[in-house]
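The authors assume throughout that readers already know how a fold can be written as discrete tokens. For illustration, here is how one protein appears when written out as sequence plus structure tokens.
>
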Amino acid sequence: MADWRQEAARAVEAELEHVRQSGEWTELGRYRQTGDGEYAVDVRGRRVDPIDDVRLAGPEGPRHGPAVPAKARLRGGVLWLGVPGPLPPDCDRVWVRQVRAHESLRRLAHELRGLGHAPLADQLAAGELDRARDAYRACFRPGLRLVWGGPGTGKTTLIDSAAADLARAGKRVLVVTAADEAPIDPGHDAERLVIQEHLAEITTVEQQLAELDAELTGYDHAAFLAVCQRIENRERSASLEAEFAEARRRHDEASEELAAAQAELRAAREAWHDSTHQRARLAEARELSAQLATVSDAASVLSDRLENRRRFYRGRRADRRALRDADADWARLEELIADCRAQAHPLTDDDAIGIEEGLTAAHDRLDAAAREETEAYTRLELVRGRIAQLRSVGVASDQDHRFHAECLRLDLPGVHAKREELRGRSPDRAARRGQLEERLWWLGERAYGRRYETGFTGRVVRASAARRFVAEQPFDVVLVDDAGSARLSDVLLAVAQARETAVLFGDFRRPGPRVRPQAIRNLPEVRRWTLTTPFGHCGIRTPEDAEAHPGCAVLTRQHRYGANVRALANSTGYDVLEGSGRIDTEVVLLDTRGSSPDYASIARFLAGAERESTAVVAPNRLQADAWLAAVRDRLAVAVGTARTLPGTDFDTVLVDLTGDDWAERVRSFGVAVTRVRRRLYLLGDLDAIKSAPIGTPLGSVNALRLQGSVAVRRLDEVVIPAPRRPQPAIDRHITVTKESASHDTMSG
């Protein structure tokens, strides 16, 4: 079947088109602290995708505020949390990073389309199995095989044992399971604990600020300062007047100096402007003098050459011409210099330098005078403002003195100063909080990355079917648990990673896979690759088919429950389950006698009878929701249907037979009763059970009752109903009439 990859991918993409994309983080709600000091969040009755990471954060999410990584374990629909170190008060909600359905399906379709050489997956797609005799040995022999086993037959234990032995033999093993309740542990990080302590300290400071704000309610510090100002006004009035007079005198002197400096600058600018032409001629004369010096140096060199060399040498004639030209230039420059100095007369070079220095000095004097005047004016206006403020505030009254004394008695100014000191550090505290929160986030991401990387390394790698894990290197052996209710497309991807051996364990009697929405169920590729299990694809749908198929090993001896539960399971389709006889499971029928049971009272009875793991299995979602509402405060009780109930098995199981005879849910009934280990309660009406047809779940219960294997107890004898709430007096209506009552009774 060369085309099965594309058909399976199209089946996945048909569902992918209807899956809503979700964000990276999902809020599960507020956690609550149990009596044992543990933290927990109740997700019973909710569809929770596999969880990769858990953070405790505020209402806006892990990226807004502190986000503390937490240990977590999903057990019985309750997420139990472990929080090492102090927890900031604003981290009151549980946020999880999940395996998003849209991304998971998209990855599955992509991997199926790009699947290369995968002989075992091709073999499974063709429905061809290798011969299987013994379930354990099948894990060590090359090829593809199925192993069917009913509930409690030790499939998971056998997989774990085989995986360990294969790893010791040097094989690399992938174990794929349906359940995804692996614990999440971010590990111990000393730095993270220190950061949590610092964040807790910052929160303490913020709480202190809130307390100080409450203590200062009604206190107006500005009014207190105004009173203090008025009290001091009388003492300051005389000194301010003297200070103002001195400031005015200094300002007047500075103003006079500024005027003199301005006059001096005007005179210097006029002298500089009037001498512009003469200074230009002097500058030209200086430039010509520099040229004259250059010409004179050149003439001296030529003269020395003509005198010191022999009389007839090459170039003598050119040197004589150059000397004559230099003499001519020297004479011309002398004449020009004399002309420039004549035009600049009577101004000399020293006079020009004096004019420029005088202008610079005038500018400096003006700048200094301007600064002095500005400072004097500023001081004058400051004193003037203080005097104006003093006059506007006025002097203290008797009421001001009483208010001042009361504030000092209560130390309100000191409390205000303490609050302002804390507020003064507010920017630093806010910045530090941001740095700590960002560092805490980074540490959480690092722990998440390390946990994700190390979780898929080693000889034995464990992954859930929902994660659709694909390794870079193929595995020697792939063992798939719960393949009896898994999608064929998921199992094909897992089997494709096997290089030598693939063994699929499962129970096809369990409820099969589902697809959303229901409208795509009729698509041929969806029916073939999504709604079909590996057992059904290979033609195995009954225990007889499993025993007759050469490629399927069968496990019939179960080790979880006793003969009574085994009889119920065999009567609902398993037929071949056997037991060792050493396990005794009590089966009790709680007879409701046709009345509606009080779920809350039954939940209290279950908790009192068995303080270990407990589960309630309802026939449908509606009754499961009613049970869940009754046991919401009892986290140790798992609630659901046979398909949705979390976990594998429980010490005590109660199966609700009221409101539904399970006739349309025979497989679900078999799954429900086999989830028990010690005690099985069947809640139902005895009369309805007696009249149930043979072959139905209720008929099987009745047959077991007739054999004396089921203890029948009245529900009102074992369950104490909740006390009836007293009716308020306002709800009691009394009608008074004027008619005479018969039989000597009072009318009313």
